[in-house]
């Protein structure tokens, strides 16, 4: 069980290269925390390991975000210019004027 979690990256790294792995208090607490998360959120160790990859690897996070947008579970981020454009259009609608119906002084 511990070797499986280690292979998935769910244990702290070995402190010394080439040293025999010893599962001390720190490692066992990490395992207990992982098992608690798995139970609380009803996920497998592999799913938890993938969630950690999403949080730690920007390319993986971007790929998952793109999928989430494509399948409708996430909204595409709005760009600042789009927000400002929508805000200006809203202000024009609430004032009851449109740009075409409000000619500038020089256009008369």
Task: Give an overview of the whole structure.
The structure is a single chain. The protein has one domain (2-12, 24-96). Helices cover 59% and strands 0% of the residues. The chain has helices spanning 2-8, 25-41, 45-56, 58-70, 80-94. Helix 3 crosses helix 4 (58-70). It is elongated. The mean pLDDT is 84.
User: How many whole angstroms does the radius of gyration measure?
Assistant: 26 Å
Low-pLDDT runs: none
General shape: elongated
The assigned structural class equals: mainly alpha
Strand content: under 5%
Taken in chain order, the helices and strands follow as HHHHH
Count of separate structural domains: 1
What count of helical segments does DSSP give?
A: 5
- Overall average pLDDT: 84
For the sheet with most strands, the description reads: none
Number of strands: 0
- How widely separated are the two ends? 82 Å
Helix percent band? 55-70%
GO molecular function, one term: DNA binding
Keywords: DNA-binding
GO biological process, one term: regulation of DNA-templated transcription
InterPro entries: DNA-bd_dom_put_sf, MerR-type_HTH_dom
